[in-house]
Amino acid sequence: MVASGVAFGSLPFKEQIAFLRAKRNVLTEAWTDVWESEHDHAFMIAGANRIDLLVDLRAAVERAISEGTGLEAFRRDFDRIVAKYGWQYKGGRNWRTRVIFETNLRTSYAAGRYAQLQALKRVMPYWRYRHSDAVMHPRPAHQAWDRLVLLADDPWWDTHFPPNGWGCQCTVEGLDERGLKRMGKSGPDEAPPVNMQTVLVGKNGPHPRTVQTPAGVDPGFGYAPGKSAFGGATPPRPPGTPVAPTPSATPPGPSGSPPQRINVPRTPPSPAPRATTPARPEAPAPRGAPLDTQTPPTPPAAAGTVVTGNGTAGTADTTWQSVFESLTQSVLRKATQLPALAGAEALDELLALPRVAAALDDSVVATPVISPGDRQTDDTADASGVLVGALDPVLVRGLQALGVTPPTAPIAASAATLAAASSSTLPAALRNADIVLFDKRTGNLLFVGKGLINIVRLGEGAAALNTYAGTETARLPDLRARLVAGDLQLMKGQL
């Protein structure tokens, strides 16, 4: 007897959720921008080319899958997010939400199953393909593969591990010797031939590409979900990684893949002839660019006096600068919703840009930041503090090697601690520290530079933020003594 309300994938498991949460956000314009096994490492929604939009959509997908609330709950979140951002997506609402939800549900389920089957391979060395009779329009090829038994290491699975197409509900089961004999088999079957076909995909979209796909498998599904994430294979090059140091498009890659682009700082246009009230600037992201290549767009400069959002007068130049500072804080806020390493990688290249670093320096007093308790609320901010920087990937990996995993990468500072510090130089001091130490006794990070120690308290718990805890005078002999005694761990630099 099957409990009512329980459907395929409605009962998530830890390997499935781990696979989902380990992905990096990737901004795209078309479904062809991320291809096959790249999906093991990249979370994307075709056409979602804004960081804040994609982060919110991802949270809705993960919530619906991890909490088992299903498609209708995701649709409610989807409607709210679309209304919030004014996103113009392709396709009807019911079709689009089903594709987004079910594709993420089925591929994450398959990846989790792949991890489980790999772990059991020694006791269940055979894998059996199972076709689902629940589908309304079964594919003949998938029906022909039903009950096919192959060794777990057979290369056929590399291109035919389900799902093998849009809406495919096929699965794989593990078998031991006894299970094989119950099927009346004395050994595995012979793998069907793999007939690769050349197909043009995305021909009506912005980035068509010519690909090779197995017969009977929909284009884009010819890979084993989770293999490059769980199976020890080398991850593919992240989508959108520049292939040449040039701001223009590079020639198409193998198999007709669309050109990759590198994001470069843009020069503001010449001053406008008259003042205008600034709107929130938004620039489309490069195709397939990962989160860490996105920079807040540079607002155009304008001359004269404008009326700002709160009714006060100011120059257009200063108003646009304020907008840019606000955007920088907004990107940092969004990164608080990512796991520490993903957020650190996303922000590392961004904060290395002089223009963005300067905007952060200027924003530490003016722009509020969400409090730790409100971390998941996008539109609320706690006026008591700001975000002053972020842990970089080297620090996060070093901490993880010590068994310490921060919940997030950004670093916040409250009004009280900022008032006691030189707030205008704090972000630069954190970014440019000569030495970074981990205090094993307190669990704090010590950023040392220019005779000072800036202390960062690592967040504890899923909703916590890393916080700036104050500044002390650096006494290098004392630090060296503590390092020798084992109280400190050197994370960066030389002491």
A few lines on this structure:
With 495 residues, this protein is of the alpha+beta class. The chain has helices at 14-21, 51-66, 70-85, 93-119, 140-145, 157-160, 177-182, 227-230, 316-335, 340-351, 354-363, 393-401, 415-419, 426-431, 476-485; strands spanning 24-25, 42-43, 126-130, 149-151, 171-175, 196-201, 209-214, 305-307, 313-315, 385-390, 410-414, 435-439, 444-449, 452-457, 466-473, 488-492.
Task: Provide structural commentary.
This protein is α+β, with helices and mostly antiparallel strands. It has two domains: 216 residues, no CATH class; 164 residues, no CATH class. Helices cover 32% and strands 15% of the residues. The protein contains 15 helices and 16 strands. The strands form five sheets. A seven-stranded mixed beta sheet has the order 10-11-15-14-13-12-16, with helices on both faces. A three-stranded antiparallel beta sheet has the order 4-3-5. A two-stranded parallel ribbon has the order 1-2. Helix 1 packs across helix 4. It is globular and about 75 Å long. It starts with 13 loop residues before the first helix and ends with a strand.
Provide the residue-averaged pLDDT: 77
Query: What count of helical segments does DSSP give?
Result: 15
| Radius of gyration computed on alpha carbons | 26 Å
How many domains? The number is 2
N-C termini distance: 66 Å
The number of E-state strands comes to 16
Main β sheet profile: 7 strands, mixed
- Please state the overall shape, judged from the principal axes of the Cα atoms: globular
- The largest beta-sheet arranges its strands as 10-11-15-14-13-12-16
Strand content: 15-25%
SS class: alpha+beta
pLDDT < 50 stretches: 1-10, 232-317, 367-384
> Roughly how much helix do the residues carry, as a percent range?
25-40%
